[in-house]
Amino acid sequence: MNDTFGHTVGDTVITDIAGVMQSRFQETDVTARVGGDEFLALMRDATPEEAKECAAALGREARKKLIGDDAIVEVTLSIGMAVYGEDGRDYETLFAMADRAMYATKREGKDHYSFAGKKQPEGEARERRRDRIEYAPEISQKVDKEFLNFAFSLLSHAKDINGSLNVLIKQIGKKYGLGFVMVFEYREEQQEMVLMNYWNRDGSRVEQQVFPRAVAVFREAEIGRFVSVPTEEILTEIPQLTAEEYRGVPAIKTCGNVKFEFSGSRSGCLCVGSGSAEGFSKEEAGMLCELARVVGVFVSLRNRQSDDQAEIRHLQNQDMLTELYNLDTFRRRIRKKLRDGGLAGDENTVYALVNLDVNNFAYVNENYGQEVGDGILRELAALIRSESYVVEACRMYSDYFIELVRGTDKKTILELVAREDQMFGEQLKIRYPAGTMQLSAGICFIDDGKETFEKILEGANLARKLAKEQNAGAVVYREDMRKNRDEGIRITGRFYAALQRGEFEVYLQPKFLLREERVYGAEALARWRLESGEVLSPARFIPALENIGYIVDLDFYILEQLLRAMRRWKDSGRELFTISTNFSRRNFENGGDDFIERLQNTLQRYGIDPCYIETEVTESVIVEKLDSLKACLTRLGELGYRIAIDDFGTGYSSLSVLLEIPANVVKIDKSFTDKIHQNGQSAFVYQMGQFIQSAKEEVIFEGIEEEQQRTFLMECGFNYGQGYYFDRPLPLEEFEKKYI
User: 142, 545, 592, 612: which sits with the fewest CB atoms below 10 Å from its CB?
Assistant: First the structure.
């Protein structure tokens, strides 16, 4: 009625019903409005039949229809009656029995009356008691201003919102001699009430607790209106309050409640218990209503603070660019899963940690800009989130990602990781048709769930590095990888002492003119001869030295040994030819200025003309550092050095990028030489070689091992090559005896 026509119409209806009651009852009878739309009457010296006739008359005379523009509301009465002697002999019992009868009438269709009767089934009695509600008399405007000022002072100076609210409810309890004070928040969707703050006079403490339902009479009450009800009825709906931690609550006779709003549309209540049989006075009810408003502000602030903290935690847990977890959060979550045994797997489930990075991502950032690079990372993150087999994922930093994945078996996980790589490449191909970008993935299977997170991640990282080195897409961790890593640590630890002892030796592999089979140059290579006599190939020590940066000193050590020999050859009157020597990507950091200065000083010290030194850089270095490397190589060319691109075909550069580099020589990787006799591949090798030869001075095919390969290359018009067909890499002294 109030919702449809407004409170003014509602108040008029209440007044009309009061008038009907006054006309029907005698002066010796007692009539009252007990709150809201509920009335009470005590008929003296009346029989049940007379009460029945009176109830029927009240129903007829109060019945009316309210007609509005969009609604018709029918006003009817539901009347419950209890008979003294049959249903009880005191006020509380008679009131309760009549109250139950009234709600029974409501459930049976309203606009009727019924007697309580002498017996009520226990279940029905509880159901009717649930609906019991008793409104306090009209709330007085008289309030304790001093205590309200105290409450507002707590609010305005609160640093710990929840702590200050606990202080307030304690003071409310003491001020009004209450048995307990509780603050609940309602969860409307779940029909739950959450006990957030609790105080009782016994001093017992209770942690936050969720009750499966909210007390109906409290939840349905109006905001700001005081409602009281016998505590036993609350305990019927919330039996948890009879537990030991709430000791003292069952002894409380009356429970009062004021519903409040907070944080916009949410609601809660201030619930208090009084040990007094009389319940709460008008002044107490009014004051509690005012205090409930203050409590509502406290709860609003607490929830806002909680929301802010949740947002802060979310931001702390999240990588801002990709919206995946950051490493700290990911590590914490995986550690918990490992502790809880959640990653042990079974015969139908296998878990693995996958370490990913984007191949040649630095090239994208340097040549297309950071905005494009960030877009690629976001696309990869979106792809990761869309994969149902990914349980958790994070971005470690830059273009490095980690996934916790799940599959039915190891083969399935390998297939899923390969599919992810393929989808990523296809996605980028649409936007960047000229580019070729793939992922390098290291997979470490979690076999028993007892490993530490750090050990699993280390395994995945070792596998990823190998995948990147071998351009293999995805590699599964093996125990020997850890041994190789440990060997790398030993190698770097022994490096400088070995350098001082002269354990590193220069080997030279001759380069040949294909037709004449005559040496016209050589490539300088490094070998490490241990004190035991064992000779380590570059594959055993170069990657470890590259990772830590020691490779720069090895590059210049080999260069100096070569220059010393060339100086000796020159002084003895022998003819010099150009020898190429490899320089790691580490030399070209910071634009390569330091490298050029060191190179110049070294050659000047030995008096060797730069035209006899060919500077080799791998294709992968060009892809990573195109712009800065182009400037550096241009300066080297101007100083008289020859420039060679090594291992062409193993990286991701396009032929157009190749044309931009001021190189004299392009060395075609052995993998292409091996394709010469494969079906349909020889034509491709020919076309590619012809294109490069048209733009560069010299094209060398590496890895020639058979006469058929040499013959094919000669017939195609290529002039230069090297490989075991001609000769293997030789120690410097042996090369000198054989070719100088």
Answer: 142
Number of domains in the chain: 4
Distance, CA of 602 to CA of 604 (rounded, Å): 5
Give the residue carrying structure tokens 């969009």: 70
Q: How far apart are CA 649 and CA 641, in angstroms?
A: 23
Structural tokens at position 214:
């909210």
Comparing 652 with 637, the larger pLDDT belongs to 637
Sheet holding 254-262, edge to edge: 134-135, 226-230, 254-262, 266-274, 180-187, 192-200, 209-211
Task: Output the six-digit token pair for 161.
Answer: 């919102």
On whether the CB atoms of residues 264 and 293 are closer than 8 A, the answer is: no
For residue 306, give the CATH number of its domain.
3.30.450.40
Q: C-alpha distances in angstroms, 326 versus 317, 401, 405, 445, 454?
A: 6, 9, 17, 22, 16
Question: pLDDT tens for residues 296-323?
Answer: 888 888 888 777 776 666 667 888 899 9
CA distance 136 to 123: 28
| Reduced 3-state DSSP string for 612-634 | HEEEEEEHHHHHHCHHHHHHHHH
Q: Are residues 45 and 189 in the same domain?
A: no
Are 429 and 543 contained in the same domain? no
Which of the four pLDDT bands, split at 50, 70 and 90, describes residue 128?
very low
Same domain, 575 and 707: yes
At 501, the amino acid letter reads R
Q: What is the average pLDDT across 261-278?
A: 82
**Dihedral angle over CA of 76, 78, 84, 88, nearest 10:** -160
Q: Are 648 and 667 in contact (CB under 8 A)?
A: yes
Residues 508 and 589 in one domain: yes
- Tell me if 172 is assigned to some domain: yes
Q: What is the number of alpha carbons within 13 Å of residue 700 lying toward its C-beta?
A: 26
In-domain check, residue 491:
no
The answer to the question of residue 37 being in a domain is yes
Residue 720, CB-side half-sphere exposure with 13 Å CA sphere: 17
Structural domain of 523: 496-739
The radius of gyration of the chain from alpha carbons, rounded to an integer in Å, stands at 44
What is d(CA 736, CA 562) in angstroms, rounded to the nearest whole number?
A: 11
Q: What is the largest CA-CA distance in the chain?
A: 145
Task: Examine the domain organization and report whether 553 and 430 are in the same domain.
Answer: no
Hey, what are 104's tokens? 């029974």
Could you tell me if 621 and 588 are in contact, meaning their C-beta atoms sit under 8 angstroms apart?
Answer: yes
Q: Over the stretch 572-593, which tens digit does the pLDDT of each residue have? A: 999 899 999 999 988 888 788 8
- Partners of 528 in the beta sheet? 504, 536
